[in-house]
């Protein structure tokens, strides 16, 4: 075989060398994309910050701190995207693959480690803590409400007790009333009422016994019957009044405070009867 043929046979190995091994970051990106997930999806499901996921995919491995922690993070990432965790670890640089004589890292421990470096994991302790705080707040509000209710009841009771004392205040003694003064005041009042009645209505003073009938505009009888000698009557009502007076010449009349001549209204001199059909 000629030297040219040998060169031709060796050409593929020179032009197309063996597939270059992927870095850890490249391998993780391919595994994630094959699963149809974004870096944000991995961040949410692994409870790690997005910047840490992006640093891992960019092969920035110094942020992990230690080889053990880095391997734990890589395994967890691989599980999230459905890849083989051990194969993912084999893509780490040699210095991060050195075995350390420690107990195998359990999944729960991995979650705790990842949580300490990235975003906080959802922990039942957090939920329990919130429940305890909520219970304390509710108990505090309940205690305040009970105390406030009792204070209000006591205040109401005290008010009910003191109110009778306020009602039973002893008033100063009223000044002594002079019966004579009261009688005089009453007489003045009666006189004023009588004067007002005389001014407003028909006042009749009988010198002898006289028969009288007085009706108002509606026909209501205001005064009727025989009036004794020496008596006096005052009548008022809806005008006009209809008046009949016997022995009219012996009766003095006053209408609205002014003297009224009944003699001019006498219709029968033999019977001495005065008749007024419409007194206004």
UniProtKB/TrEMBL annotation:
Residues 204-266 form the Cytoskeleton protein RodZ-like C-terminal domain. GO terms for molecular function: DNA binding. The keyword Transmembrane applies. Gene3D superfamilies: lambda repressor-like DNA-binding domains. Keywords: Membrane, Transmembrane, Transmembrane helix. It holds the Pfam family HTH_25. The chain crosses the membrane at residues 125-147. The keyword Amino-acid biosynthesis does not apply. This is Cytoskeleton protein RodZ. It comes from Ephemeroptericola cinctiostellae. The gene is rodZ.
